[in-house]
Design brief:
The complex is a heterodimer of chains A (about 550) and B (about 100).
Chain A: H1 6-28, H2 33-42, E1 45-47, E2 52-56, E3 62-64, H3 65-78, E4 82-85, E5 91-96, H4 101-110, E6 127-128, H5 143-153, E7 168-171, E8 185-191, E9 197-203, E10 215-222, H6 226-240, H7 251-258, H8 260-274, H9 283-291, H10 310-319, E11 320-322, E12 328-333, E13 344-346, H11 347-360, E14 364-367, E15 373-379, H12 383-392, E16 407-408, H13 423-432, H14 436-442, E17 447-450, E18 464-471, E19 474-481, E20 493-494, E21 499-500, H15 501-518, H16 526-533, H17 536-545
Helix pairs in contact in A: 1-2, 1-4, 3-11, 6-8, 7-8, 13-15, 15-17
Chain B: E1 15-21, E2 27-30, E3 36-37, H1 49-61, E4 66-77, E5 80-83, H2 86-93
Antiparallel strand pairs in B: 1-2, 1-4, 2-3, 4-5
Classes of the chains: A alpha+beta (about 550), B alpha+beta (about 100).
Chain lengths: ~550, ~100
């Protein structure tokens, strides 16, 4: 965990005092809604269909057990007893009252949390691999650079009013668990031919109305140059990004319209002016940031897990992964039990997870962009006990990465932008695929659902993508196949006309059944079958039947 | 350019004026006394564009009680007015699924 210093604490205290005053002035009528709206958005406060929604940043998805308990308390005292973990490693509360917000923000600040820069046209919460620091395949801990970027971008005066919102993601492993190629800037830490570590810089990725896979504009950027190069990108975007049309304002449009080569040349030109200035990162500074991360004091253990109970074994094989330290395991907690809204956790579950994190994971929890949670440091000998306690709280569904591990945005049940519901579609699918034997036989398959073209459910990069649209007052759903968000990121291909709400679960069941019949062998993954045979066979199956 | 407030309002059936209450975001409707109420049953229903525009003007003038007023369709069913589309139905009745809940402690 990263330990905040006095600078962070002072900043939060000052922002809290400002916000408290702003809310009081709004409630008294001194501020109009037009004046207040940008102020509340800067603190992560949205107005949704039937209530205010508060989005709280979880920097690079890292939470302490105490922070989780704070979230549980807020859910109980100020909301409706649950929270929703998002695809950007944040949490949202859907029923917060404006008049309670100063107290809620004060509780958050006491725990080192806030909603700053979770909305607005600024640099948003920097995200990374939920297994950062513990994954055996990573080169080094990407959170150190995520933290440097967090400090750099927090209330940066030059980049607080960009043409549009701006999202940065990092990974330090060859297998991309952070979806870096669909972010405004994606950074991949890797080694060059000389054995030095630096960043591959990917720019202009994004989903939404006009999806693009990001383009690499710098194959290798030395660490010392990270901030100056990022600043050069932001300056070029800030100057040339379109402010006249919200639909064309993201950096992906600029990169697309200029072309990646020309965009890179503009960045290079800007960078040369600043690369050796104050933003150059020296070793001492990087080491200082790294020293503020507290790593667990691991025991010297040998690998070994006692299997035997088939239910435990299934969970172990599905929901845990090898840790970089012998004798330890990374545990993913599925927030996708059959029939539940994806990514939601009750205050009771949050408290249970906080207690389990204290007892079994050095007090640390991670949030993944797939809307599941992670206990990153569990001794293998503790796994059976942990599993039993998770199961008792409804948190041990062994469906991680399977067809029922669905990513879904809040959709029309909450969101004022949505055209169609996402959660009930996800719930119906999790019920249909609740049989774990079948789900495991189907294998890895990611279903992503968005309730509108803004794509918060990342439908473009779902193996099966589902996009809700509205037609003549009714909900319809477009289906795409073959998308993926990993190191081989691709956008899915639309299979044909949208299908009505009543048929969407049947259609997806048909697609899955077609895959089972069409795969060459039981271990050919859905995504590989689609790659091999294209979408036509699935399209024929769907439109012949519906 | 004509401001959205000055643009001619078009409606195809009965409508109400709805918004979110400032203090807590709750869904509210304008009633015949120009007050905000939480029950759709108590809302004043406009049947012409002129009436709807006049009510919207009243709603927009009140920036303290409610936020973002707009015209929402309603339909008559069995002598009462109900939301005219799914979005408004969800605003009136809440999410269409059971909300997560902790066990009794």
């Amino acid at each position: 965990m990263y330990i905040y210093d006095e600078v962070d604490k002072t900043l939060l205290a000052e922002r809290l005092a400002d916000f408290k005053d702003q809310v009081a002035r709004r409630l008294s009528g001194e501020l109009t809604e037009e004046e207040f709206k940008p102020l509340r958005l800067m603190n992560g406060v949205y107005l949704q269909l039937h209530a205010y929604m508060l989005r709280i940043a979880i920097p690079y998805g890292s939470l302490s057990s105490n922070q989780m308990r704070t979230l549980a308390r807020i859910a109980r005292a100020y909301d409706r007893d649950y929270g929703h973990f998002t695809t950007r490693q944040n949490i949202q509360f859907n029923w917060i009252k404006l008049e309670d917000l100063p107290e809620v923000m004060a509780e958050l600040a006491r725990a080192g949390m806030h909603g700053i820069q979770t909305s607005g046209n600024c640099i948003r919460n920097v995200t990374t691999d939920q297994w950062a620091g513990v994954a055996p395949d990573e080169i080094e801990d990407p959170r150190i650079f995520a933290e440097i970027l967090r400090q750099y971008s927090t209330m940066h005066p030059e980049f607080s009013f960009l043409p549009r919102k701006f999202k940065i993601a990092l990974t330090a492993a060859p297998h991309d668990r952070a979806a870096i190629r669909v972010h405004d800037i994606g950074l991949r830490i890797h080694r060059n031919g000389a054995g030095e570590t630096g960043f591959e810089v990917v720019v202009g990725g994004g989903l939404g109305r006009t999806p693009f896979i990001g383009k690499t504009i710098k194959p290798f950027l030395p660490k010392r140059d990270l901030l100056s190069y990022i600043e050069a990108i932001l300056r070029v975007y800030n100057q040339h990004g379109r402010r006249d049309n919200i639909y064309k304002a993201r950096i992906k449009i600029l990169v697309h319209e200029l072309g990646a080569e020309k965009f890179a040349a503009e960045v290079e030109q800007e960078w040369l002016k600043i690369r050796d200035g104050v933003l150059a990162l020296d070793r001492e500074f990087i080491d200082d940031i790294a020293s503020r991360f507290r790593y667990p004091e691991y025991e010297s253990l040998e690998n070994g897990v006692r299997l035997g109970n088939p239910d435990f074994e299934r969970w172990f094989r599905n929901s845990t992964a090898i840790h970089k330290k012998p004798g330890y395991q990374i545990v993913t907690i599925s927030l996708k039990p059959a029939g539940a809204p994806p990514g939601d956790a009750t205050s009771y579950q949050m408290d249970v997870i906080a207690d389990l994190a204290d007892r079994y994971s050095f007090g640390e929890i991670r949030v993944g962009h797939e809307q599941n949670l992670v206990l990153p440091h569990v001794a293998q000998r503790d796994l059976p006990a942990l599993w039993r306690e998770l199961a008792a709280a409804g948190l041990a569904t062994p469906n991680v990465g399977l067809v029922s591990d669905i990513i879904a945005c809040p959709g029309l049940d909450y969101c004022s932008l949505a055209n169609a519901r996402s959660i009930p579609v996800a719930q119906e699918l999790t019920r249909r695929f609740h049989n774990l034997d079948s789900a495991h036989a189907i294998g890895r398959l990611h279903v992503n659902i968005s309730g509108c073209i803004n794509a918060c459910g990342h439908h473009h990069v779902g193996h099966i993508g589902v996009l809700g649209v509205e037609k003549n007052g009714s909900e319809f759903y477009q289906i795409t196949l073959g998308g993926r968000a990993d190191e081989h990121a691709e956008l899915g291909t639309l299979i044909g006309p949208a299908v009505p709400y009543e048929q969407v679960a049947d259609v997806i069941e048909d697609i899955v059944q077609a895959y089972v019949e069409l795969r060459e062998r039981p271990d050919e993954l859905f995504i590989d079958t689609v790659k091999r045979i294209g979408v036509e066979p699935f399209k024929e199956r769907v439109y012949a039947a519906h | 350019m004509t401001s959205p407030l000055q643009q001619k309002l078009k409606i195809t059936g009965p409508v109400v004026i709805t918004a979110n209450r400032l203090s807590d975001g709750a869904v509210v409707y304008l009633d015949a006394n120009k007050a905000w109420v939480t029950r759709l049953d108590d809302a004043v229903v406009a049947r012409s564009a002129e009436d709807a525009a006049a009510l919207l003007k009243i709603a927009n003038a009140d920036d303290i009680s409610a936020v973002g007023p707009y015209v929402a369709p309603v339909t008559e069913a069995g002598g009462v007015f109900v939301p005219g589309n799914l979005r408004e139905k969800i605003r009136t009745s809440g999410p269409t699924f059971e909300l997560p809940a902790s066990p009794e402690r």
